[in-house]
Give the backbone structure.
Amino acid sequence: MKTVVPARAAWSSVVRAGACLTITDLHGNQAVDFLVYDAHDTSVRYSAPDTIHAQGGIFLTTGSVLMSNEHTELMTVTADAVGRHDTVGGACSKESNTLRYGHHTFSQHACVDNFLAEGARHGLGKRDLVSNINWYMNVPVEKDGTLGIVDGLSAPGLSLSLRAERDVLVLVSNCPQINNPCNGFDPTAVEMTITEAAGA
Amino acid sequence: MAATATTYGARAHARAQEGAHAEAMPVVPARDWPAPPCEAGLLVWAETVAGGNYTHRVLARGTELRLTDLHGDACAHLLLFAADRPWERLNVADTVKVQWNAYLGEGVLLLSDQGRVLASVVVDTAGRHDALCGTSTLVRNTGRYGDGAPQSASPAGRELFKLAAAKNGLEPRDLPPSLSFFQGVRVGEDGALDFTGSAGPGGSVTLRAEQDVTVLIANVPHPSDPRPQYVSTALEVLAWRAGPTRPGDPLWDATPEGRRAFLNTAEHLTARGLA
């Protein structure tokens, strides 16, 4: 199954255990905000701190295991052409944008709205939204703790692949942010490909 | 016949315990705390939380909350919710991203997911804290210490948070990533984490509630604590009536992001008739 997610749009799908989800950055430098839940018990969901702690670092790449809030495995990064993805920055929201840039940004598109709308289709509400992964987003941390979203390391056509370690529900907001370099100030489309496990 | 074989005897035995003292206990009323950090009548919460235990309280806007690592092996895992409106809650990602810093310390605002301040860090004498690793879980503690259940000898932070949440009408789905105080982590250039441990006995952090907040605290070892034993010592919790941050306070204007967060908070409270 192959789907192009347009700039600023949301997407979701169940990915069966053993199946592979490939996310392709079609035009380069596009942040893909990503949440993942146990498809059969959505109270078990991606945990940024458990993932960071389990792998001993804040960047995701090949071999990284996405851990749940109960410290169980949800998905594993099996291939990554970029080398560094963000676990710290979370999603843009209309509310946090008023702090980051000013109140004039309140009417702009934001990822939390995508997550709320797409999540509602699966019975998820506001309390089900937690700190998420930002695929392709580059957020370094300086010695003094200073962190920020800087120019991405991705390029047109680069992709990463994730294997589902159990049946999972994936929520994506193809980030509409236009105030920081997470997508070069110009949101573009990405492609989602689900490949079922052999014999499934 | 034993003294407690009758209802009268059992009642007398229970009542004879009043006035007993343990290291870890709430002092009620709080003004009876032996060494108050302020005028005794201003104290609203005075408690020593045992290692491997939890506590929770609803605090009014303007209350200051001081956490102290008494013996050097406390780790205060903390969650905040807007009291009576728990869908507005601590957002660790926004807290670090909006303020351009991964580390907690004096002057840091603990932000909600609604672009507002729940609490601010007004004093920090410890300097070893963590916003990245969250707390421990049943699965992890069972693997590491043999058990992680709340009644075991090595309770997991998430299990204690679930209990504290339940006592406030909240469910596991309401628990976002948490912060931890008194056990530090630093990030290397390559993103790898370095656990820096505790600053030693006596370190303290004072938070100021900028809205009415529900506070959940689990005092359990940091998940990165490398020691094979479960080491968790007492946490002192004192809170007293003070005032919220107002325009003119240096903290209000310390950063443009923080100023807008305080402005959003003031607008929200004013609209509700609360400020």
Summary: The two ends of chain A are 14 Å apart (CA to CA).
